[in-house]
Write a structure and sequence with these properties.
Number of domains: 1
Order of helices and strands: HEEHE
Oligomer: single chain
Strand order of the largest sheet: 1-2-3
Helix content: 40-55%
Structural class: alpha+beta
Shape: elongated
Largest sheet: 3 strands, mixed
Length: 86
Amino acid sequence: MRKEKDLEEHEETVTRVLEALESIRPFLHKDGGDIELIDVVDDKVYVRLLGNCNGCPVSFSTMKLGVETTIKQMAPEINEVLSVEG
């Protein structure tokens, strides 16, 4: 029973993370960028910046001020958002 509860909680977290990404996606699209959810593991979210956001000099600020803040607001159980290259 515990495993089912854990799976349900994980699915709820992933749903909230995806909603957070959808809410910031229009801002990234304005600059020719996008974002992809790679994985959610425990309290960490792994994302990949795409398009013009990939390798952009301000991508660190975008991650910290935009992406990470929004995800943590919508999914407070998340403690860290990490960018995956490639």
